[in-house]
Structure formats: structure tokens, C-alpha cells
Design a protein that fits this description.
The complex is a heterodimer of chains A (494) and B (558).
Chain A (H helix, E strand, L loop, with lengths): L11 H19 L6 H20 L6 E3 L9 E3 L1 H28 L4 H19 L3 H19 L6 H32 L4 H6 L5 H17 L8 H8 L2 H33 L3 H21 L4 H24 L3 H28 L17 H4 L1 H14 L6 H15 L3 H27 L15 H19 L2 H12 L4
Antiparallel strand pairs in A: 1-2
Helix pairs in contact in A: 1-2, 1-4, 2-3, 2-4, 3-4, 3-10, 3-13, 3-18, 3-19, 4-5, 4-10, 5-6, 5-10, 6-8, 6-9, 8-10, 9-10, 9-12, 10-12, 10-13, 11-12, 11-17, 12-13, 12-16, 12-17, 13-15, 13-16, 13-18, 13-19, 15-17, 15-18, 16-17, 16-18
Chain B lengths: L3 H19 L7 H25 L7 E9 L4 E7 L1 H20 L8 H20 L3 H10 L1 H11 L4 H27 L10 H6 L4 H18 L8 H8 L2 H26 L1 H27 L4 H22 L2 H32 L15 H15 L6 H13 L6 H27 L16 H19 L2 H22 L8 H6 L47
Antiparallel strand pairs in B: 1-2
Helix pairs in contact in B: 1-2, 1-4, 2-3, 2-4, 3-4, 3-11, 3-14, 3-18, 3-19, 4-5, 4-6, 5-7, 6-7, 7-9, 7-10, 9-11, 10-13, 11-12, 11-13, 11-14, 11-19, 12-13, 12-17, 12-19, 13-14, 13-16, 13-17, 14-15, 14-16, 14-18, 14-19, 15-17, 15-18, 16-17
The chains are: A mainly alpha (494), B mainly alpha (558).
């Protein structure tokens, strides 16, 4: 196979990031003790450029790399992949903006940090372009290994180390399931290509088992119940910006890959083989209910956000069920939801980053520790309220429109009851999201107790402001993103 | 010059713009913040009077503004007014500056956040009253929850967080049910979406589906009204809310529940609505009597007023359940009247609380001699609230009872009888409260130095009193605006459900008992100046129709 340079052009957004990441890693050798804010800037510029390139190419024909048709091309750069790449790049961008001040505080101000974020983003991009299960697996591993390392960066903090180890072990376990599933699928169909998989109608037991194992792998990655046990500890232990990045980026990439899988192999077998819908539905219902109920009882804001992120995976699984039912708008709804979820979650973690204290510890993350912040830092208070309201799915935010779109897709797929479960979950979630606002605005400030003061950082401010802007923009003027998600789904043949 | 539709949009969004401007003000300058907010809301009230001036008598929507918004979903930015919306909008803009003025000395800390929340709340309420698109309505409906939540939770009393969260969760539970129903209604059989109310009115559903959809909407609105048995958030919210919050909650927010029934739940699902009318009617009369009885035994004045709201709002719901023009027009009138007397009551209770920091009835008694002006206003307000003829409380309740009695379904008479006891009970608990606060011997020495109302407080209450008297003497001022829309509403529901009840414009005329005439089957709306053979201009007399309720009614030529 000969590769000519022009043929690689569709991969430019990803290659650019690889280039920047390698540059960062190499420069780190000579950098000495200098401030690493420049590394963040470089990463942000790279991610911004990559996002721009991805979005610019939307609407151009599909490009197949290293292959001639869908059945043998490992990388498919279509509008779906482009929109997804732009989304994960955006997640990386905001996460990179949140990082410099935190990294300085926490004492892990290394250039590699940004390199790892970039590599993770590249892995996510590959996942969204994967035309076969092996490429998908490569992307997944590229992403996962980078994120494992990011989780453990606060090496002096036992919570961080514990989180990294736990995440790594659990992740490795999940990867094992996934790989075994891929092997079984290959055994059943003699191919790993998604397009070939789609031609197999009713599943042989081997194929069914293979797909089941692949689904378990996914469920681990998106922290769907009952494969969610790792999430709270990992979210709590990881550096706050990394938690944000992990919560949105990994989830987005996994759901996007799942969507491609559903619209090729699984979709067909789901329509002919009725076992998938009930299993996915049960997964969705469990994830929503357990995630929300456990979030309800948390006393630590970061853990609460972890469980809330579990429940959001549940809402997204409703969309997957609708997609498996053949509902055309479901995929578009999932991408929309992921986008708004990205901004509101990163925004919330951004605000937490602002308020993080050097001495840290779990005590500083309890609800009570945030008493009176809303008045001492009005802008932060407003932003946090906005993100909480958005996560709770209230208008006029992207969180509301995303839920609306997702639940509409479920209703159209004649899964109204799933929409009702989602609504019930949202109602539970209102309580714990409000608790954050209660803490910020309504609790008496303990005198003279320790009160967190906000870090001042231009990058952090920009990151939170960007997130807030997009949360509102997606709620009030969702049409541009709707158009993007539509063309993404069209490129999948819907 | 602005087009009427643009004025409507300006009225809705001026407070929000004002809130954004106030966000740039220095937080320390309290008087400046409060003054600017009062100025803004007063300006908005004056602007909204232009709507009143531009309103032509008639049943349809007016001053419509319809802009494409989220095209792929068939969502439009669609505002418009009919008579019912109009009077509720004016009520909102009217109450807002008075509330802020009333809160001048009550809110002393976090003033900036307070005025911003109040202004944002106003935009939310106004928007909900004039939205003709389900998505837009839901947006405003939910958006106003947030400022109210802050108002209760930050400036409230001891148990404010509990009350604020309870308020939020209750309302949200209903709203989410409604959201699912909205999505079902907006999903067209052809595959696309259309969130416009006009399209929603033309949809037909299978009876089972229609029933589910109706109840999804009805529960959301019933919680807001609040109807028995989902009223339990209201006493908590009222007692803990600051005076300004209570005023707006009772004055406007509750009316949104009634409005929701009128605008959405009933016309969209007429069959289910008529089938549900007996249930709603019974719940309404239970609410009337239960609210009144519970109010009677309250030791806390604010709680007493809160339960009186449950009772009064029961009349609104009874009027709707009766499904007659009189009942519906009366229901809206009760909304307005309650929106004048109850805010006044809350303001008065708030004034006492500011001075004595207690709302317990037993701590007062005999203070009329110390605070005569206060006593005057309290007695006036109580009379208006209790429905004394010639004050604003009377015409609405009277029309509701009338409309219920003549209601086409058989339960009307029983309801009327039960509900009428609510009128008596209202007099009992309100007068009982007045007596225990104002009269008798002055026993509590702490009340010896009680200060009477100051100029600001008098200025706050005078407009409310003027309106209470004016609407009592001349209810047709607003009944003229309400009636065509009410008739149209009753017809929509009855036509939609295929019953052969004929709502007609003559209904009010006949039932007010002044002049009996044969039924006129078509909508023949009473329009001023089109009264051939009527009395000469300027003659003072009891005129037929709605004006039959007017105490003094000059027949005007336009």
C-alpha cells in the first residue's frame, strides 16, 4: 500500500494535533523550570485550528483512507466523523483552557500534560472515523492510555494515584471484553469491517455474544450501570480539569463510535433480532435511575457530578435505543446532546477549578464549602447556576434543547415510556443540581471558617465564558448545530 | 412609531434588558438600584397601557408577532394577545412597580441581585402570558421558576431553602409531564414538528391518548394554581418568601396556572377536558371550602392569606370547570381581583412584620388606635378580598357562581351551593383576622409604639385600593375585554368536543338577570357604541349585559 501525501488531507485535523503534541513533548526536554502556560496556548491554538479544519470540510464528499470501498477502508472521513472530531476537539480545547492555573496550583505543570490531552483527542477522532473494529480499538486505546496517565498526574495525592490505578485496571478489563467481543465477531463473520457486519442479518449465537461483549466494553467506557463503579472514585481523584475532559470527551467518543456501530452492524441485527432493544433499554433505565439516585445522596460536589455524568449516559442510551429502532433523528439528537453536555459539564468543572484550593482534600469539595460564593464572586455564581440549570435540563439552555431532542426521538421511535423514565430521572436530578445553587447562594457563610477564594486566570475565565456562551447559544439558537448534526447523520446514510 | 406587535415584544423584554443593565450598576448604591428598577417597571406599565389602547374588542389574537426561530423543529417566536392575556399582562406590569416600592425597606442586603431577579421574573411571566407557541411558552414558564426560586431561597425566612426547593420540585414535576405532552402534540403525523398553538388546536387524538395528554397538562397547571390536593407547596412558599415574593407569587404566578388551563389544556383537548370537568369541579369546590377552613384556624397571618389564595383560586377553577361564558369570564375576573386584594394583604402583613418581626395574630390586637391609616387600608383590603359588593372581589365570584349554576353538566347546582359557603367562610376568616389584629383592647405592650404607615407605604397601597374600588364599581372595564375571548374559549371547547352546548354572547346578558331575551345563537359580541335603540349617550342606568354588574355605568359613545 503506497500512501501519497495529498491522500492524507482528510486526516489533517488529526495529524495537526499529533504534530503539536510531539512538538510539546520534544520541547519539554529543553524547557527547564519555565512556566508551561505557553504549552496550553499552543495546545489551544492547535485544537482550535483542528476544529476549524474539521468544520470547514463538512459538506464535502466522504473520503475513504487506505481502502477503496466501505468494506475495506479502515478510516472513513465523512461528515459524521468531521462533526464528531470538531466536538472532541472542542472538549479538549476547553479542558486545555481550564488547566494552566490548576496545574500550577497542584504542582504538575508539565508540558506533557497538554501533549496527553492532544493524543487523547486524536484517539477520539480515530474512534469516530473507524470503518472497522480494529481501527476503532486502536483509537480507543490511544485515547484511554492518554487519559489513564492524565488521571494520575497529581502523583503526590493518594486519591489521584488510586483513581489512576482503578481506572487503568477497570479500563483494561473493559478493553479485554471489547477485544474478546471483536474476536468473536470476526469468528462469526470472517470480517471486522462494520460495513460487512451490516450484511449479516439475524445473528448467529457467536455474533450475538460478540456484540454483547462489545457492548459491555462500551458500557464500561461510558460508565453505564452496572459498569459504573469506577466513575465516582476516578472523577473525585483526577485533577479537576481532567475529570471534566474525561466526563465529556471519553463519553462523547464512545457514544459516537457506538452510533456508527448501531447504524451499521447492530442496527440491522437489532431490527431483525429483537434481543438488543430490551437489553439496551434496561441498560438505559438502570443507568438513569441508579445514577440519579446515587447522585442524590452525595455530599461531595465532584462525586455528585460523577454520578450525574452516569445518569447523562443513561439519557444518551435512550437515544441509542431509538437509533437502534431505526429512528432517523436519534443520532442527530445524540450528537446534539453530547455537544451541549460537553459545554455544561466542562463549564461546571471549570467553576470548580476556579474554587479549588491548594491544600485541597475532599473537605473542600463538599457542598458546605461553597457557601456564599455566589455573592463573593457574582460572575462565577451566575455561571455555575447556568451550568446547573442546564444539566438539570431547564430552558433556555442547551441542556434543555438536547433533552427535548433526545426525548422526542424516543417518542417518535415509540419508546414513550423511556422518555418518561428520562423525565423522571431529570426530576430527581433537579434536586441535587439545585443543591449546588443552594450552597452558592442560600447557605449562611460559616464565620470565620475557611472560604475558598477564586483563582484568577485569564485562560480559565475564557474557558468558562466559552462554555457559558455555548450553553446559552445552543439553547436559544440551536439551528446551526442542528444543521451540522443532520449532515453528519446524512453521511451515515440516513 | 412602533407597531403594536413590537410594543408587545418590548413590554415582554424591557424588564430583562433592564436586568442586564442593572447588572452593570455598582452593588453598593441601593437607592439607585431600587429607584432604577421602579422606574423601569413603571415605564413598562405605561408601555403596556399602549397595548390596552391598541386592543380592539374581539375574540381573536391581536398584535401578533410571528418570527421564524428554530426552523427544523417548527418552532416560532410567536407572541400575541387576546382579552384574557391582555388583562393578565396589565395586572403583571401594574403590580411590579408597586411590589418593588413595597419592598424598598424590607430588602436591605443583596439589593442588586434582588432587583435583577424581580425584573427577570417579570419577563418570564409576561412572556408566558403572550406566547402562542408551545415551545416558547414552556421556555418562559420554566424560566420564571428560577428567579422565584432565588427570591424565596435568598431573601426568605427561616425555612427558606426547604420552601424554595419544594416550590421548585413541585412545579418542575408538573412541567416535565407537560413537556412530554408538548412533544407528543408537536410531533406531527406526517413526521415533522410544529410547536404552534394554532396547529395544536387542530390535532385530533385517540380518546385514550387525549385523556393522558390532557392530564399531563392539567397536572402541571393544577400544581401552579394550586388546586387541592397539590397545593401543599404554596403555604410553605408564601410563608418563607419575602413580601415581594409573596406578592408576585399570589398576584401573578398562580394566575399562570389558570391561564394555562384556558389557553392550552382545555382548548387543545376538549373531549378530555369536558370529561374531566366533574373532577376538576369537585377539586375546585373542595379547594374553596378546605382553603377557607384551614385559613380560619391559622395563627400566622401570612399563612392565613396563603390559604385564602387556595380558596380564591378554587373559584377560578370552578368557573373553568363550569364551561360557561359567565363562569370563564368570572374566573378570569377573580384572577384579576385576587391579584389586587391579595398582594395588598401581603404588603400590609409585610409592613406589620417589618415593624414587629412577628406575624402571629395573637401578638396583635387593638392596634387600630395606634395605626389608623394602616387599619383603614387593612379593612378596605379585607372587604375587597371577602367579596363585598362594590369592591373588586364581588363581580368575579358572583359570575363564577352564576356560571356554575347554569352549567350544562348536572353538578353545577351542587357546586354552587358548596362554593357559596366558601364566600361566607371567606368573610368569616378575614373579618376574624381583622378583628384580632385591629380591634379589642391593646394588650401587648410591644404594640404601644407601633408606627403608622409612612408616605411610601401609602403610595404603594393607594393604586391597589383605587383599582379595588374601580373594578368593583365598574367591572365591565375589564369584562368587556375578557368576554369575547371567554366566549370563544367556551365555544372552542364545546365545538371541539362535539357537544351541542351553544355558548353565546347573550349568555352574560341573560344571566345577569336584567333583561331576558331570546337566545342569539351566533357570536354577537357586545361592542361599545353599537347599541341601536339604546339609551341616549351619557344616560346613567343599569345597562344589560356585562354592564349589568356595574354599579354606575355611563353609556359611552366612541
Amino acid at each position: 500500500m503506497s500512501i501519497s501525501l495529498p491522500a492524507l488531507e482528510p486526516l489533517l485535523p488529526g495529524l495537526l494535533l499529533v504534530g503539536v503534541a510531539i512538538l510539546l513533548l520534544m520541547y519539554e526536554v529543553f524547557a527547564g523550570q519555565a512556566d508551561r502556560t505557553y504549552a496550553a496556548h499552543l495546545a489551544v491554538v492547535g485544537l482550535g485550528l483542528s476544529m476549524f479544519l474539521s468544520l470547514k470540510a463538512v459538506g464535502t464528499p466522504r473520503a475513504l483512507l487506505f481502502g477503496t470501498d466501505l468494506a475495506n477502508a479502515p478510516l472513513i472521513v465523512d461528515d459524521f466523523a468531521r462533526v464528531a472530531s470538531a466536538l472532541v476537539a472542542a472538549a479538549g480545547l476547553v479542558a486545555a483552557l481550564l488547566s494552566p492555573s490548576y496545574a500550577k496550583n497542584a504542582g504538575h505543570d508539565h508540558g506533557e500534560y497538554y501533549g496527553l490531552i492532544l493524543f487523547a483527542v486524536v484517539g477520539m477522532m480515530i474512534m469516530s472515523m473507524a470503518g472497522d473494529l480494529m481501527t476503532f480499538f486502536l483509537g480507543l486505546e490511544t485515547m484511554s492510555i492518554a487519559v489513564y496517565a492524565l488521571t494520575g498526574l497529581r502523583a503526590h495525592d493518594p486519591r489521584s494515584t488510586e483513581a489512576a490505578l482503578k481506572y487503568f485496571l477497570m479500563g483494561a478489563f473493559a478493553t479485554g471484553f471489547l477485544l474478546f467481543g471483536i474476536a468473536l465477531v470476526y469468528g462469526a463473520t470472517a470480517s471486522v469491517s462494520l460495513a460487512t457486519l451490516a450484511t449479516f442479518k439475524a445473528g448467529s449465537p457467536l455474533l450475538t455474544l460478540g456484540i454483547a461483549l462489545i457492548l459491555i466494553g462500551f458500557a464500561f467506557k461510558v460508565a453505564a450501570v452496572p459498569f459504573h463503579m469506577w466513575a465516582p472514585d476516578v472523577y473525585e481523584g483526577a485533577p479537576t480539569p481532567v475529570t471534566g475532559f474525561m466526563a465529556v470527551g471519553v463519553k462523547a467518543a464512545a457514544f459516537i463510535a457506538l452510533l456508527r456501530l448501531v447504524h451499521s452492524g447492530l442496527g440491522v441485527s437489532a431490527q431483525t433480532d429483537s434481543t438488543w432493544i430490551p437489553i439496551l433499554s434496561a441498560l438505559a433505565v438502570l443507568t438513569i435511575l441508579v445514577g440519579n439516585v446515587l447522585a442524590l445522596v452525595q455530599q461531595n460536589v465532584k462525586r455528585m457530578l460523577a454520578y450525574s455524568s452516569v445518569s447523562h449516559a443513561g439519557y444518551l442510551l435512550i437515544g441509542v435505543v431509538a437509533a437502534a429502532r431505526g429512528e432517523a433523528s436519534a443520532g442527530s439528537a445524540i450528537i446534539f446532546y453530547l455537544t451541549s453536555y460537553t459545554f455544561m459539564t466542562l463549564g461546571a468543572f471549570g467553576v470548580l477549578t476556579f474554587l479549588e484550593r491548594k491544600e485541597g482534600g475532599p473537605e473542600s469539595e463538599r457542598y458546605g464549602a461553597f457557601a456564599g460564593i455566589g455573592f463573593r464572586h457574582p460572575a462565577l455564581g451566575m455561571a455555575m447556576s447556568l451550568f446547573m440549570v442546564a444539566l438539570a435540563g431547564m430552558p433556555p439552555t442547551g441542556g434543555f434543547f438536547g433533552k427535548l431532542y433526545l426525548f422526542t426521538a424516543a417518542i417518535r421511535a415509540e419508546e414513550t415510556w423511556l422518555a418518561l423514565v428520562g423525565i423522571a430521572g431529570s426530576l430527581i436530578s433537579v434536586y441535587y443540581y439545585l443543591r449546588v445553587i443552594v450552597a452558592f447562594y442560600m447557605r449562611e457563610v460559616p464565620e470565620p471558617g475557611p472560604t475558598p477564594t477564586a483563582t484568577r486566570s485569564a485562560q480559565l475565565t475564557l474557558g468558562v465564558a466559552l462554555a457559558a456562551f455555548f450553553v446559552l447559544q445552543l439553547g436559544l439558537f440551536p439551528a446551526p448545530l442542528l444543521a451540522l448534526t443532520k449532515s453528519a447523520m446524512l453521511s451515515l446514510g440516513l | 412609531m412602533l407597531q403594536p406587535a413590537e410594543i408587545l415584544a418590548a413590554v415582554v423584554f424591557l424588564p430583562l434588558v433592564g436586568a442586564l443593565v442593572l447588572a452593570l450598576f455598582p452593588a453598593g448604591d441601593h437607592n439607585n438600584l431600587k429607584g432604577t428598577a421602579i422606574g423601569l417597571t413603571t415605564a413598562n406599565f405605561l408601555l403596556s397601557l399602549l397595548l390596552w389602547g391598541n386592543f380592539r374588542p374581539g375574540p381573536g389574537y391581536q398584535m401578533e408577532l410571528n418570527l421564524a426561530w428554530i426552523e427544523p423543529f417548527g418552532i416560532h417566536f410567536h407572541l400575541g394577545l387576546d382579552g384574557i392575556s391582555l388583562v393578565l399582562v396589565i395586572l403583571t406590569t401594574f403590580l411590579m412597580p408597586l411590589t418593588l416600592l413595597g419592598a424598598w425597606s424590607a430588602v436591605e442586603h443583596r439589593v442588586k441581585e434582588f432587583v435583577i431577579a424581580m425584573l427577570a421574573l417579570e419577563t418570564g411571566m409576561l412572556g408566558a402570558f403572550v406566547s402562542l407557541d408551545l415551545f416558547l411558552f414552556y421556555l418562559f414558564w420554566e424560566a420564571m421558576l428560577i428567579p422565584m426560586y432565588f427570591l424565596i431561597g435568598i431573601w426568605g425566612g427561616q425555612r427558606r431553602i426547604y420552601a424554595a426547593v419544594k416550590f421548585f420540585i413541585f412545579t418542575m414535576a408538573g412541567s416535565l409531564l407537560m413537556l412530554v405532552a408538548i412533544l407528543v402534540v408537536a410531533t406531527q403525523p406526517t413526521g415533522g414538528f410544529d410547536f404552534s398553538l394554532a396547529t395544536a388546536l387542530t390535532r385530533d387524538f385517540a380518546p385514550q391518548t387525549e385523556r393522558l395528554l390532557f392530564w399531563a397538562f392539567a397536572i402541571a397547571f393544577a400544581i401552579k394554581v394550586p388546586m387541592f390536593p397539590v397545593h401543599t407547596w404554596l403555604p410553605d412558599a408564601h410563608v418563607e418568601a419575602p413580601t415581594a415574593g409573596s406578592v408576585i407569587l399570589a398576584g401573578v404566578l398562580l394566575k399562570l396556572g389558570v391561564y394555562g388551563f384556558v389557553r392550552f389544556a382545555f382548548p387543545m383537548f376538549p373531549n378530555a377536558a369536558l370529561a374531566a370537568a366533574p373532577v376538576l369541579g369537585w377539586l375546585a369546590v373542595i379547594g374553596i371550602v378546605y382553603g377557607a377552613l384551614v385559613a380560619w384556624v391559622q395563627p400566622d397571618m401570612k399563612k392565613l392569606v396563603a390559604y385564602s389564595s387556595v380558596s380564591h383560586l378554587g373559584f377560578c377553577m370552578l368557573g373553568l370547570a363550569a364551561m360557561t361564558t359567565e363562569g370563564v369570564a368570572g374566573a378570569i375576573f377573580v384572577c384579576i381581583a385576587h391579584g389586587i386584594s391579595t398582594p395588598a394583604l401581603f404588603l400590609l402583613v409585610g409592613m406589620l412584620y417589618e415593624r414587629r418581626h412577628t406575624r402571629v395574630l395573637a401578638d396583635y390586637g387593638g392596634i387600630a388606635r395606634k395605626v389608623p391609616i394602616f387599619a383603614f387600608f387593612l379593612v378596605m383590603t379585607v372587604m375587597a378580598s371577602a367579596g363585598l359588593p362594590a369592591l373588586s372581589g364581588f363581580p368575579g365570584e358572583f359570575l363564577v357562581l352564576l356560571g356554575t349554576y347554569t352549567s350544562p353538566h348536572g353538578l353545577g347546582r351542587i357546586w354552587t351551593i358548596v362554593a357559596a359557603t366558601g364566600v361566607i367562610l371567606a368573610a368569616v376568616y378575614l373579618l376574624w383576622m381583622t378583628q384580632r389584629v385591629l380591634f379589642g383592647p391593646l394588650q401587648n405592650p410591644a404594640n404601644e409604639d407601633l408606627q403608622d404607615m409612612n408616605a411610601r407605604e401609602i403610595v404603594t397601597l393607594v393604586p391597589l385600593m383605587v383599582m379595588a374600588v374601580f373594578l368593583g364599581l365598574h367591572p365591565s372595564t375589564i369584562l368587556d375585554k375578557i368576554e369575547p375571548a371567554s366566549t370563544r374559549f367556551v365555544q372552542l371547547v364545546h365545538q371541539g368536543s362535539g357537544t351541542n352546548y351553544q355558548a353565546d354572547a347573550g349568555a352574560l346578558r341573560r344571566s345577569s338577570g336584567v333583561q331576558m331575551r331570546p337566545t342569539t345563537p351566533s357570536i354577537q359580541l357586545p361592542i361599545r357604541g353599537q347599541n341601536p335603540g339604546g339609551p341616549p349617550p351619557g344616560a346613567f342606568q343599569r345597562v344589560p349585559g356585562l354592564r349589568g354588574l356595574d354599579m354606575v355605568a355611563p353609556v359611552k359613545e366612541q
